[in-house]
Amino acid sequence: REDLPADIEACLQTHYDLSQSEAHPARHLTMTGSLTATVEDLGISRNTAKTHLRRIYEKTGINTQLQLAKLVHRLAQLY
Question: Would you say 9 and 79 are in contact if contact means Cβ atoms under 8 Å apart?
Fold first, then answer.
């Protein structure tokens, strides 16, 4: 499991207009690679996670978890 700087969340909020409640699972999902692990670790329901993910996709213009991971890793290189 790879750690990403927490600053990534602020970067996602600034550049993609994600809310804090969207940016946090975006970063966490990228680290775990698993929606199930993200749901368990963050203590949110699967439906809430899916809603966040749908909004993340809409705001960033991506369509898959792999694309999200690539986006977050690209942003992480700025730090």
Answer: no
Compute the distance between CA of residue 79 and CA of residue 77 in angstroms, rounded to an integer. 5
Which amino acid, residue 68?
Answer: L
Distance CA 16, CA 10 (A): 10
How do residues 51-76 score in pLDDT, each as one tens digit? 999 999 999 999 999 999 999 999 98
With helix as H, strand as E and coil as C, how does 18-49 read?
Answer: CCHHHHHHHHHHHHHCCHHHHHHHHCCCHHHH
Q: Are 27 and 12 in contact (CB under 8 A)?
A: yes
